[in-house]
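Deliverable D4.2, example record:
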Amino acid sequence: MSFPVLGTMRNGGLVNGLPVWTQPDGPGTPVYPQQHLGERVALFVMPFCSHWSNTLNVTIEQSAPDVQSAILSCPLCTCVVRIMTPASLYLDNNVNFILLP
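Output generated by the structure prediction step:
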């Protein structure tokens, strides 16, 4: 798997091998389907995909031979909303005092 790109879905829109999510206008644009009005009750709207959520997926990946990055993505569609290098920055309260997209 290649290193993710900001504003793109990590899994290409697949869920259990089936196509569920689409990003018809390309990287950095909304991902469909969008949540219905009654499902938009979270604290944050994810940049790029425009989904609402209270959490983020955080995964650590090797971005260079001796460097790891924290990949923050939407928990619904896996759209990458932030990349922090080195990965330790996402736990640093001075740099990232609240884990936000």
